[in-house]
Amino acid sequence: MKLNFKLLVILFTIITFSCKNEEKEESINVSKAKDVSKNLNISLLLDLSDRISPTKFPNPTMEYYLRDVGYINSVSEAFTEHVRSKKVILAHDKIQLFFDPTPLNPEINKISKDLKIEFNKGNVSKEIISKSKTTYAVKPLEIYKLAIKDGNYIGSDIWKFFKTKINDYCVEKDYRNILVILTDGYIYYKDTQIKDGNLTTYLSPELIKSNNLNSPQWSEKIINQKLGFIKANDNLSNLEILVLGINPDQKNPYEEDVIKTYWENWFKAMKVKRFEIRNTDLPSNMDKIIKDFISNKE
């Protein structure tokens, strides 16, 4: 009888210890899953101004619109890789594409709807993920070709997008929100030209020249004259921004620094959580930079 009682105690101790270890291991695995499985909400904002025109701004190495297409493909690959890495039950990720102003060509707007993709536990599969990757590899090129064929380059109202749309379109609770902007760094739209002292809603080579920001003293002038963009938003602390394609006028050796300072000061004023601003380059050179940003590698 005593022997049986001892055996029961030993058996109970072994089972209890084993259960606790399993609970601990399960807790660790759940914790790891949460760390790896952050929900991505990626938005792409395309500048379809005349910067993409192969006629006005030809580039024998690689046309600028084709560089954009390559950047978009890298973003898509990073997004789909993230979705693949998650358990089905944790799938909750989005990717979409925007313009401002909306192009007049209805075909472009139709294609942009095809590029609005959302994954959740009810629809995610290897086939659907692969299909979305193919869509993003093909459809953006169609958009650029249509925009170039139309030749109606009305500018890019990036400032107003930040003012009136970014919170509704690009920022969602319980997501890691990322906005990728494809632009040469200049902002201009005919119907959004506002000045507040020396702050503006636009930036052009002509404005940089008129503000005499083409000398070694450009930085002091920006500070002393309080030059820059008008703040368009009060709090973007739940948004990360990657700007790609900065392409300064080569006639001014300080143009690149001026453009980046305008954007950096603007983002800081709007409390953007994290941002990077990169010059135009071949997509093969930008691929790692884009994917590291999206995977949150510092």
From TrEMBL:
Upper classification of the organism: Bacteria, Pseudomonadati, Bacteroidota, Flavobacteriia, Flavobacteriales
Protein's name in the database: VWFA domain-containing protein
